[in-house]
Amino acid sequence: MKAIIPAAGQGTRLYPQTHTKPKAMVRLAGKPILGHILDSIGETRIDEVVIVVGGPMKEQIIEYVNRAYGDRFEFEFVEQENAEGLGHSIYQTESVARGDELLIALGDMLFENGFDHFLSDHDELPATDGSIGVKRVDEPQHYGVVETRNGGEVTRLVEKPSDPPSEYAISGVYIIENSDALFDALDYLVENDVRGAGDEYQLTDALQRMIEQGRTLYPFEVEDWYDCGRPDTLLEANRVLLSRTETADPESIDSAVIIPPVDLGNDIEIEESVVGPYVSVDDGAKISKSIVDDSIVGQKAVLDGVNIEESIVGSNTEVHGEANHLNVGDNSSIHL
User: What is the value of pTM for the model shown?
Assistant: First the structure.
């Protein structure tokens, strides 16, 4: 079985953080989003991973995964030159993934119950061509939606419908047994220029075509997921992940108060400050005379005399003076 991670998205909802890094490389709880995804995949039987990359910053992803996970997985990198939807992204992997069993995991989604749990749920289903992670939501019109036959076999999928046929939203994880049928469906969409929501090639439409061609799909339940493509849910995921980790006893920090859970990187300096709870501080950051709560502080960032909460401070950024809520991109300098 192979995992496919589409990670070529521009990440406009995370501006300014994604002006200087791919969305999958935005850091929380001690490592990039992509690192947390690979950690979860590493708990499964999967040892081959295909990552879809694109844009001028794709080398950041390639360098990171080869350095941090090259001894755990065999990687293939496939380029998506034009961002034309999730279906189009998966379509790019046909030459390296057709014929394999696949786990498709979006590059900006983290899950409360991990991929090994999903694979176990899939294995308990009746014989099927694939399965889809779903969750009941309050506003299904904002998602891809699944309709089932009495809670069992999927009968219809539709992307962001104005009149949703059910409350079950597609949550961004898919397990495909019959990848030949999936790529046949994607081929049809692209070759016939069948575009869906957002004028893009949608994976949802390809799965719907599989059903129309007589293939069977089943749902499995996802408890909670975190769409790390937005600042508020990125901070929420940071809180959840930090709550599962043990805060290391910081060395050489004797003039600061550290309130767990926090993640402290290497070569950081914290003086006359209160840091935590739910704070991730990247390598080389300096914090002085500040109060930092429920925030993500980037690599080599400098915070001096600030009071921040629910904030994201980019790498190589300096913030001096009073503050409250911030979302500051990399390489910035702010005096308040």
Answer: 0.90
